[in-house]
């Protein structure tokens, strides 16, 4: 039988002030960015070292007490909710850069550092860490949820950029996966098994990340399109031609309207692509020229090219503020963001059908997409205490997921499963979910690692 | 107790002529590209479909009979040797291209197709599959061993280019992993767990591969260097600057001498980089110019640039023939190729120390490297029936592996573990090998899947 109280008493003896049961702290770690009720843990631990994480897990393991890792709480499917109580392990104190290797293009970091903090630390090296999910998430959280984002079309996703991990297992053992070499065929790929495992297989305590050289030149562009398909088809052509575009973001008319209002812009309220090019001075100019030609072939127009840093910053600042801009359109509502990913040739259809479904129910929902990856997000804006609205949001999400599967895609491109997408995981993977459950049991026989997420094992 | 004879009798009833126990067939499937004695299976099955693979595995599962998948037998660490007997499953009949999706840049193939056959089939589409390990291996074998090769510095390794799999599990269940979408965060990454699992967790029956657009322009170059370090440092600089070089191969003086003799070339017998650039016409010219400047900064010279297809082909044909060219230098010997991978800043040291070790024992061993990845190969040429020579080759290999680990690298960048590197896997991963064994037990509780490879479970 789980004995969380006994585990917490032992932890308190080890950690002192760094084990909190203060209601405000518990409440904060029970929050989520979606529609679930606040679900506080029984206690929150603040370890300083891997050895302490191991000690915490050993004690919790002994007493059958759940452990839930916590970064900054930006996950979107209830990943970090302690739905069976237990101890949340907040990584805020484990936020150091342990090593930067400029020649080998890697950095070793602790999980609590955010991607913006990391890039600030890297600035003087001429290197950067490119994965950008929008939110200023922690690297640990981005690793655990298999995040990606706007630059993935060029630099890859977390799975491509995590080289090695240190992980505390369910019984407190500490293992190292991967190496500092760029590639390895040495045994089962534990690194990529832990990436996206959402704290259910182990607790990530150190991450070795690929770094990239800051490009010599960066330029940005926006282009208008008459419809979804013309924007998406332009991207398909660019991808087929291998154009080295670093970001290609679709922004729908409704989002443009919100951005205009929120960021004091004056873009035409139609379909847009926001693009960024990285390379040499001549390279980015050539890429932009080609992209302009492609866009115009597909009916695009109003191509604007920005080489000045402040113009670029303004554009991407607007894109990153899309969530807040849209929420500002409907004050007092909650915003629920969901994501799916489909083969790019099906993307326009998936987005158009989703919008048609939303509008058929009298709603509006802005849509943005990492088009180069076939990944898009819909933001539902409603009052989550209104049961009818919540039910409709869930129905629309369900159909969006099933539509993605019918088109050969996946129910999540980058947000992960958490608790919100568990039933869709079964729809997507069928028998393979039983194999995932076997893995869960092999790694966590007593079921203490963030239980009730990704797969049910009982 | 395993009852291989009973399994084979039942298989014979199902498969008829497509289950062979002919000595010549058994001998062929007992061969290997390294120093192990011929180790034939008890029978060889030639399935036509996934359903047949499932049926074969179910029968073998019932009788505890090992099953070993087989592509074309190019693996280098004894991966496909049936060391505990059983049934080899030869995928030669399962060699079809099932689907090519030009807009979505993927192809679905059966495991028995070779990479050259696939690229021949793709030729008219303007697309290609870039991973090139040298040997004309099957896609199934390349997936199972987590192969990479000369183009990995630009296009990635198998792990980056396999999107989805169909796999037959140890009890005959058929699962599908991944999707046709470019990315997914939907549950544990089973795809990348099977990539590199060498037939020990399941039998891969279908592979969805990323394709790439054939570049508009391709050019090649060679450059001479006074020593290992100057060649490697040029590559480090190119990688740091993000130069889009598609291949960057180090070839040592001894290999150059062999290539000159074998391919009737007249290169200076010193350290070389062989390079290839993919992009637009102006892009490849710019990249080559920059690469020339970098190489000269590090003491390189004699930079020769080839835009004509026949000159390029000659160059890469020579590189691909390096193995045979070197064997031709010592007629009558066996060639044993081994690989390790280190952080690129340690590569020159690793290669120089290895050569010094080899020469200190009165041997010579050519060395070639996928420098951009920090991966290099040494070819030991000796008579494998000579016990003293075999022992020395094993000792030199052992020190090469331990040296890679001391430098932060891995004991195999692309060849895999098989039986040859199992003890080094333990040296590299320690406690994590026990986790790999847990995975093996979870997937294959009766131990029939290519037993005795990667990890020992007893």
Task: Describe the fold and architecture.
Two copies of one chain form a homodimer. By secondary structure, chain A is an alpha+beta fold. Chain A folds into four domains: 4-92, Uridine Diphospho-n-acetylenolpyruvylglucosamine Reductase, domain 2, CATH 3.30.43; 97-213, Uridine Diphospho-n-acetylenolpyruvylglucosamine Reductase, domain 3 (2-Layer Sandwich); 217-323, Alpha-Beta Plaits, CATH 3.30.70.2190; 330-415, 2-Layer Sandwich (Alpha-Beta Plaits). Chain A has helices spanning 4-15, 23-28, 50-63, 115-122, 139-145, 152-155, 158-161, 190-194, 228-240, 253-263, 281-297, 309-320, 322-329, 347-360, 387-406, 422-429, 431-443; strands at 19-20, 43-45, 67-70, 87-90, 97-101, 106-109, 127-128, 162-168, 174-178, 203-210, 212-213, 217-225, 245-251, 271-279, 301-306, 334-341, 367-370, 375-382. Chain A is globular, with a radius of gyration of 22 Å. Chains A and B meet through strand 9, helix 8, strand 11, helix 9 and helix 11 of A and strand 9, helix 8, strand 11, helix 9 and helix 11 of B.
Describe the SSE topology.
The structure is a homodimer of 458-residue chains.
Chain A: H1 4-15, E1 19-20, H2 23-28, E2 43-45, H3 50-63, E3 67-70, E4 87-90, E5 97-101, E6 106-109, H4 115-122, E7 127-128, H5 139-145, H6 152-155, H7 158-161, E8 162-168, E9 174-178, H8 190-194, E10 203-210, E11 212-213, E12 217-225, H9 228-240, E13 245-251, H10 253-263, E14 271-279, H11 281-297, E15 301-306, H12 309-320, H13 322-329, E16 334-341, H14 347-360, E17 367-370, E18 375-382, H15 387-406, H16 422-429, H17 431-443
Parallel strand pairs in A: 2-4, 3-4
Antiparallel strand pairs in A: 1-2, 5-6, 6-10, 7-11, 8-9, 8-10, 12-14, 12-15, 13-14, 13-17, 16-18, 17-18
């Amino acid at each position: 039988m789980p004995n969380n109280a006994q585990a917490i008493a032992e932890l308190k003896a080890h950690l002192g002030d760094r084990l909190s049961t203060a209601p405000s702290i518990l409440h904060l770690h029970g929050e989520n960015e979606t529609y679930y009720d606040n679900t506080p843990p029984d206690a929150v631990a603040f370890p300083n070292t891997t050895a302490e994480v191991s000690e915490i897990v050993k004690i919790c393991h002994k007493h059958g007490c759940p452990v839930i890792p916590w970064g900054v709480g930006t996950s979107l499917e209830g990943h970090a909710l302690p739905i069976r109580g237990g101890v949340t392990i907040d990584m805020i104190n484990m936020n150091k850069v342990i090593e930067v290797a400029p020649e080998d293009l890697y950095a070793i970091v602790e999980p609590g550092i955010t991607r913006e903090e990391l890039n600030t630390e890297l600035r003087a090296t001429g290197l950067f860490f490119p994965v950008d999910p929008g939110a200023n998430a922690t690297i640990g959280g981005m690793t655990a949820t298999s995040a990606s984002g706007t630059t993935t079309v060029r630099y890859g996703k977390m799975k491509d950029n995590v080289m090695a991990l240190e992980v505390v297992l369910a019984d407190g053992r500490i293992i190292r996966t991967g190496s500092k070499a760029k590639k390895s065929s040495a045994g089962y790929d534990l690194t990529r098994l832990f990436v996206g495992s959402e704290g259910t297989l182990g607790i990530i305590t150190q991450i070795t990340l690929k770094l990239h050289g800051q490009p010599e030149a960066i330029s940005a562009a926006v282009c208008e399109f008459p419809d979804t398909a013309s924007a998406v088809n332009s991207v398909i052509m660019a991808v087929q031609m291998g154009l080295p575009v670093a970001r290609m973001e679709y922004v729908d008319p409704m989002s443009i309207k919100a951005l205009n209002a929120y960021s004091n812009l004056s873009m035409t309220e139609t379909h847009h692509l926001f693009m960024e090019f990285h390379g040499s001075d001549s390279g980015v100019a050539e890429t932009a020229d080609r992209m302009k030609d492609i866009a115009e072939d597909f009916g695009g127009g109003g191509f604007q090219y920005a080489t000045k840093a402040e113009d670029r910053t303004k554009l991407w600042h607007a894109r990153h503020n899309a969530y807040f801009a849209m929420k500002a359109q409907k004050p007092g509502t909650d915003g629920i963001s969901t994501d799916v990913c489909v083969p790019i040739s099906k993307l326009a259809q998936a987005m158009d059908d989703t919008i048609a479904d939303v509008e058929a129910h009298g709603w509006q929902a802005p849509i943005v997409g990492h088009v180069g990856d076939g990944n898009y997000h819909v933001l539902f804006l409603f009052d989550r205490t209104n049961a009818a609205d919540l039910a409709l949001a869930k129905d629309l999400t369900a159909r969006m997921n099933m539509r993605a599967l019918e088109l050969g895609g996946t129910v999540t491109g980058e947000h992960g499963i958490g608790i919100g997408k568990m039933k869709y995981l079964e729809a997507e993977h069928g028998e393979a979910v039983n194999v995932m459950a076997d893995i869960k049991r092999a790694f966590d026989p007593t079921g203490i690692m963030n239980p009730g997420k990704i797969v049910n094992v009982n």
